[in-house]
User: What shape does this take?
Amino acid sequence: MDIELSKHEHKPLQVNPIKHSQPMGAALAFMGIKNCMPLMHASQGCASYTKVFYTRHFNEPIAMYNTSVSDITAVLDGGDYSILMAIENITKKDKNLKPELIGLHTTGLTETKGDDVRSVGMHIEIPYCYVNTPDFEGGMQSGWALTVKALIDQHTEETTELKANKLVILPNVNMQPAEVEKVKAFCEGFGFETYALPDLSTSLDGYLSEGQGKLGTGAISIEDIRSLADSATMVTVGASMEIASKALLKKNPGITHLHFDHLMGLKMNDNFVAELMKIRAIEPLPQVKRWRGRLQDAMLDSHFLIGSSHFVVTGEPDMCIGMCELLQSVGGTIDAVVATNYSPVLEKIEAEHLFVGDLEDALEHFQKADLVISNFHAERLLHMQERNTGLILRGFPNYEELGNQLKNDQLYEGSTYFLFEVANALRHVKHGG
Assistant: This one.
């Protein structure tokens, strides 16, 4: 299917944008590393916006620092000085702050100037990871993926050894902390020693721990990252993670790579389970089979409502494809998909209209849909139209609801919950309750 790009390419600006910047994706990825200090090479305003954005979305303290660059100091002082002074000032101010990794990510200002962020690491005693994430290209999804690639390129050690029961998951940016935890536990149920990079399962997850908000509290450490190349199996979830998977395969070409565009719905999860069974030569746990049966029942129960309904989905490409394929598996009609940025995975989606754009572009399709799946900003637009169209909030940001970090749309279990949530929303739209 052809992707309609004309609306996006010929507009001088985005109105009601649905996409967010690469530095925001990078910051979130660094929060998924244990005792990491996310350091945005930017002005205070850029970092403050990111901090407020995630604070409101997750309702949690956010570890976020910046180099306080301005348009003047960027030219006069140079990038090296700003970065080194920022690290010194931050660590001196709080003697108890002992980061095990500095996660430096750039922005449009510092990328335009062309700061050499790589060489700065030579002057820092703390382990250091840099990633170039200009906000004038890409988006949140690519910023996250570039950061994972940088972590592997710069810190994972090459090896030819493989641990048969060791598995690493590379999740995409759309997977919430609870979803990462669920997928890890799912793999552990097959007897794997499981890691995720990044691992938000213990970060931004609603559990207020000591020191939270100062450093990243992810479940994977810099030591774990160094030794990831001896994992016999790698699972990538989302097409955006291809660049990170290639980086890890360079460290050890012997790794078995299992790729899934998403982990939603019966077909994709059956394939996932089949691959894990083949590697471990064991049957899945009884609860896995039970949740598969529950998903089948949910597909039957929700078919009448979803199968007679029209949908519009907006968001990051890796999120859109999973939701569209699950809805279509029970007969749903996808009228339009509006993506934040182009990705080859969009060409796999079957929709009447499919394009890269913003919420202004999506508005005409909202007026014909029964249900919209979008972020918080779509709510105001739906209130402005006469048609009674339902809304399910997904993606970034969601300022309307609590518990975003604990939402689960993945695996058999999450897919079951998602279908029931959609069906109940449609019941309210069509029958008033």
